Structure formats: C-alpha cells, structure tokens
Amino acid sequence: MTFGTSIMFSTNAYATDIKNSQLAKGTEALINDVTIWLMILAPIVSALFIIYFFIRRSAADEMDQKKWNNRIVVAIVSCIGAVLASATLNLIIGYYT
Questions:
Q1: What does the domain layout of the chain look like in residue ranges?
Q2: Cα 91 from Cα 29, distance rounded (Å)
Q3: Among 20, 26, 51, 74, which is 20 to 30 Å from 80 by CA?
C-alpha cells in the first residue's frame, strides 16, 4: 500500500526536465568554452614546442637530429589532431543547443 501511494505521488523525470536542468546547461556551456579555448591554445603551444625543437635540433649531432625531426612531426600532427577534435566536439555540441 505504501509502495502504491509513493508511485502515485511521485513525479516523473523526462528528458525535457534533464535538458532544461542547470547541470545540463552548465555542462554544455563548459564543453563549449573548453573546445573554443583548445582551438586557440593548441596551435600556440604547438608552435612554441616546434620552435624549441628546431632550436634543439640545430644544436644536435646527426643522430639526435633524426629524433628532433620526429618530435617536430609529432608536434605538428598533435596540433592538427587537437584542433580537429575540438572543432568536431564543438560542432556536435552545437547541434544539441
């Protein structure tokens, strides 16, 4: 009897309630802001690393130059990956607003 009464007086949670909740709106805004900042900061940080790697490569011997070349390539690919991932996430979140 208590169980039946609790079911009758309880409120149902629908997806619209979750969508309009402060937590969902805040999380959406947080992801949007983080992806925008990542698209701005990733190329800047990558450029600084690449400049540092070029400086270190110029002072290295022949064997170490190959390692620094690999690090430069990894930094470029990582920059492109971070920007693409951030833009994709920002695009996906844009559909849910």
A1: 19-95
A2: 13
A3: 26
